[in-house]
Design brief:
56% of the residues lie in helices and 12% in strands. It has 426 residues and is of the alpha+beta class. The strands form three sheets. Strands 4-3-2-1-5 form a five-stranded antiparallel sheet. Strand 2 (231-237) and strand 3 form a beta hairpin. It starts with 10 loop residues before the first helix and ends in a 12-residue tail after the last strand.
């Protein structure tokens, strides 16, 4: 039979015990000490947590009224994330701990056990509150101050993990009745095991700090990771995963440390520059390359009068080959049809509003290949957006293939992709 070891000699306890006895009499139950003790304990716990819940509800309701009265974005975010409610979870166990000294016998072992459980629960609720504040602070910084979209979510995950590690150590120390410092010293013997278990998290944490501090990766960047299927936009960066949405709307998960230990391509600089490179070749039949005759020159200038200034300048200077320094000079020759075609294509690109004229621009012959003589068109479009870029690229190549026939050039094939296009969607 259990002894009355938890009910103290206190006026409040005596009054409550009398209420319990009357309640048991109404139910027709004997006043058994064990039954009185259990009912007394349940009433104290229920009363404590009811009072704590009532205080928490009142505080949260007042905070909600204040937040709604002074309408701000931060206040709305507090309500949306339920930060106030989560922070108030520690109030019920705190009320119970404050009532325990007057509700239970001080030397009771049961009381010690109950208080230990309550303290553990209190620290768990404190951990929930701290992490709620960290999450709210992360959201506010990420929305309002993280203008560069740095991957800081990994730092948040690390901070929340540290909070829970501290809470767990404190809770274990309460259970085993040892100092947290002594417990922490004993855990060093298991450091190797812990590092093995949490290897991905540790490597991801270090990689996340490197990616953020060196500004190697941001949310919204278009990246290409060799030897993986990742070729798209970064949508999220956590402690263990970089989530990439490919252009076919598939998701690829890449470990952060793989980006640091290996190489990856980030297209942010191209996007920030506002221009995108076109470096595409058409392959010309070498048999169609011929010396430029007066008849050919007359036909060409008649159909494409924009090349006439180049021809006049060359004849005036008594030259057959032109080469001028600069970003976008009109270079070419009057010796062959392909030389004049180069000069015409440069003139065409300089007149096009779709092409950036302050960037490098040239049309040049590349080394001979089995496909023919490569004539490379090298320039930069004024847009980096994929659909618009492909439109510019198609317009330039279409005009080059149509105009080449007037110059007597036969095109055998052309590059399928531009140099700056890793795949068809990019």
């Amino acid at each position: 039979m259990l002894q009355l070891t938890i009910i103290p000699e206190h006026p409040f306890a005596a009054w409550l015990l009398d209420v319990i006895d009357r309640f048991l009499d109404l139910l027709g139950l004997n006043r058994h000490p064990a039954v009185e003790q259990v009912v007394y304990f349940l009433l104290i716990v229920i009363a404590s947590y009811f009072i704590g819940w009532l205080i928490k509800t009142i505080i949260v309701a007042i905070a909600r009224k204040i937040t709604k009265f002074h309408t701000t974005e931060i206040g709305q975010d507090l309500l949306k994330q339920q930060t106030l409610s989560r922070c108030a979870h520690f109030i019920p166990p705190l009320v119970f701990l404050s009532l325990a000294p007057i509700a239970f016998e001080q030397k009771s072992e049961i009381l010690t056990f109950i208080i230990n459980l309550s303290v553990i629960y209190l620290f768990l609720t404190i951990g929930i509150a701290i992490n709620s504040i960290l999450s709210f602070g992360f959201m506010q910084y990420n929305q309002r101050r993280n203008q560069r979209n740095l991957p800081i979510k990994g730092i948040l995950n690390l901070s929340m993990g540290i909070v829970w590690v501290v809470v767990v150590i404190i809770c274990v120390s309460i259970i085993v009745h040892k100092s947290p410092a002594a417990l922490l010293g004993g855990l060093t013997a298991f450091a190797a095991v812990v590092m093995l278990i949490f290897k991905d998290s540790i490597l991801g944490c270090v990689a996340g700090v490197q990616l953020s501090s060196n500004d190697m990766l941001r949310v919204g960047d278009w990246i290409v990771v060799p030897n993986t299927l990742a070729n798209g936009v970064v949508v999220d960066v956590t402690l263990t995963t970089v989530k990439v949405q490919n252009f076919d709307n598939t998701m690829v998960m890449v470990p952060p440390y793989s980006l640091v230990s290996n190489s990856f391509q980030n297209w942010r600089a191209m996007s920030d520059s506002g221009v995108r490179r076109v470096a595409q070749s058409i392959y010309i039949n070498p048999d169609s390359i011929k010396p430029l005759t007066d008849e050919m020159l007359a036909n060409i200038t008649k159909k494409f009068p924009e090349v006439q200034p180049f021809v006049d300048k060359m004849k005036k200077d008594g030259k057959t080959v032109a080469w001028d320094p600069g970003n976008a000079p009109v270079n070419g020759t009057l010796e062959s049809n392909i030389g004049l075609f180069r000069a015409y294509m440069v003139t065409y690109l300089l007149a096009s509003p779709m092409i950036a004229h302050d960037q490098d621009l040239m049309v040049c012959i590349q080394p001979m290949s089995p496909e023919g003589v490569p004539l490379q068109i090298y320039c930069f479009s004024v847009t980096t957006q994929w659909e618009a870029f492909e439109g510019v690229l198609s317009a330039v190549m279409e005009h080059a293939m149509l105009a080449s026939a007037t110059f007597g050039l036969e095109i055998l094939s052309a590059d399928h992709l531009s140099v700056d296009t890793p795949d068809k969607k990019a």
